[in-house]
């Protein structure tokens, strides 16, 4: 008999633990201030949204429309009028021809990328694209190539990765590039509208223009994961594509509902033909139980809240919080003057509610803040590139100015502690005059 499998797993876990990379499930402490979750609009705990959701469930029960489960996949017994009506509503809200629901953003991306690109096609993807896209690409028959994060044109100053334009130029050059240049093979370009670890926005207009210039025959298909922009970017939270007026120039969008929307699930926005194709070929849709009515009702309730206009006050408050947080953290750095290894932030104003607090001691900072009643999480390699460990701070419409300032005071106290510890270490390490003569 070979080594018992649990022994193999235990060894692998132990090795990961020694590397400081062991993952564990944790529970937030009761009463903690949330600076961690992706619920940017705080809709999941919004009293008006909760009341509207419960009323929708009660009404569905009275009408005989309520079912705790769907009973099967959508191709068998799980399809409902409620699901199809919601898809039409979602498509109309985002200015898309059609929409197709998936149980999660992960399943939407794996389903889309595994079956849409064909043999001979190429997928160009931003190096920081989500893990779900990577899993979908691995199942695809297309070749895949990364490009430097948010780099559209010119020198990336990175010998490992090219810009998007350089990658497209290589694809369309020489004899091998004739298939792409003539439009006989396709190029899919995978980007996110807002990147979840750094909180930065994609230069989406430049990306679309670059693709159209390099592939004028229309065989360049941009796919945008709008997970972290849904609900708060653009008019009524329609997302970055709609905000920039690029609906007709982006081939497909993935909107997820587990973040600012405060519920769960996702939808792929696309053409009616692509929707039919995904119903036939997207395995993550075909071979899974369809969303039950409670999930559909949650999504519809969140969309009605966006459409009703009440969200504007939340968005305005969120914008003020983003600016104030950056101002307080910048002032902290000016006072303490920590090394970049100890603590730093991005210099420019935040582009999203996601504010990374960079430090080589991310676990220490996160634990210090958690012990003082603030829920934040350390994000370390390999989830982020080596040397960019951080505590990921997420702001929410439900947070207050006072909570932000108290959190920043905790961060400053930790930075001061690190500064003092570092000074003491240097003094201890420096030889005395007497010992230096020996």
Automatic annotation (TrEMBL):
Q: Where is the Aminotransferase class I/classII large domain?
A: 33-410
Q: Does the keyword Iron apply?
A: no
Which cofactor is essential here?
Answer: pyridoxal 5'-phosphate
Keyword terms, alphabetized: Aminotransferase, Pyridoxal phosphate, Transferase
Cross-referenced Pfam families: Aminotran_1_2
The record ties this protein, via PROSITE patterns, to:
AA_TRANSFER_CLASS_2
InterPro entries this protein is in?
Aminotrans_II_pyridoxalP_BS, Aminotransferase_I/II_large, AON_synthase_class-II, PyrdxlP-dep_Trfase, PyrdxlP-dep_Trfase_major, PyrdxlP-dep_Trfase_small
Transferase keyword on record: yes
Q: Which family does it belong to?
A: Belongs to the class-II pyridoxal-phosphate-dependent aminotransferase family. BioF subfamily.
Cross-referenced PANTHER family, in alphabetical order? 8-AMINO-7-OXONONANOATE SYNTHASE, CLASS II AMINOTRANSFERASE/8-AMINO-7-OXONONANOATE SYNTHASE
Q: What is this protein called?
A: Aminotransferase
């Amino acid at each position: 008999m070979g080594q018992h499998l649990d022994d193999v797993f235990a060894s692998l876990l132990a090795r990961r633990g020694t590397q400081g990379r062991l993952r564990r499930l944790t529970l937030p402490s009761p009463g903690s201030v949330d600076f961690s979750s992706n619920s940017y609009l705080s809709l999941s705990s919004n009293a008006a949204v909760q009341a509207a959701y419960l009323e929708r469930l009660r009404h569905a029960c009275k009408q005989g429309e309520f079912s705790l489960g769907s009973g099967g996949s959508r191709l068998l017994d799980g399809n409902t009028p409620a699901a199809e009506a919601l898809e039409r509503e979602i498509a109309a809200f985002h200015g898309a021809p059609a929409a197709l629901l998936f149980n999660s953003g992960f399943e939407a991306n794996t389903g889309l990328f595994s079956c849409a690109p064909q043999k001979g096609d190429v997928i160009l993807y931003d190096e920081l694209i989500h893990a779900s896209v990577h899993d979908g690409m691995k199942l695809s028959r297309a070749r895949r190539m990364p490009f430097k994060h948010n780099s559209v044109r010119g020198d990336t100053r990175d010998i490992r990765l090219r810009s998007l334009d350089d990658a497209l130029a290589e694809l369309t050059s020489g004899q091998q590039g004739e298939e792409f240049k003539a439009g006989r093979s396709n190029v899919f370009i995978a980007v996110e509208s807002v990147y979840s670890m750094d909180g930065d926005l994609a230069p989406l207009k430049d990306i679309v223009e670059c693709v159209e210039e390099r592939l004028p025959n229309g065989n360049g298909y941009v796919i945008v994961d709008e997970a972290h922009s849904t609900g708060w970017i653009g008019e009524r939270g329609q997302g970055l594509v709609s905000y920039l007026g690029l609906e007709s120039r982006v081939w497909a969008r993935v909107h997820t509902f587990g973040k600012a929307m405060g519920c769960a699930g996702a939808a792929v926005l696309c053409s009616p033909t692509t929707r039919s194709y995904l119903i036939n070929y997207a395995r993550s849709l075909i071979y899974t139980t369809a969303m039950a009515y409670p999930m559909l009702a949650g999504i519809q309730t969140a969309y009605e809240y966006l459409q009703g206009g009440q969200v504007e006050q939340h968005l305005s408050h969120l914008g003020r919080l983003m600016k104030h947080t950056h101002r307080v953290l910048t002032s902290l750095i000016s006072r303490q003057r920590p090394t970049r290894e100890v603590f730093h932030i991005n210099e420019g104003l935040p582009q999203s509610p996601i504010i990374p607090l960079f430090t080589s001691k991310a676990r220490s900072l996160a634990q210090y803040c958690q012990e003082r009643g603030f829920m934040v999480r350390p994000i370390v390699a390999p989830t982020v590139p080596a040397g960019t460990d951080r505590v990921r701070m997420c702001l929410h419409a439900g947070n207050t100015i006072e909570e932000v300032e108290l959190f920043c005071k905790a961060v400053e106290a930790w930075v001061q502690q690190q500064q003092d510890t570092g000074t003491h270490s240097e003094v201890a390490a420096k030889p005395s005059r007497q010992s230096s003569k020996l």
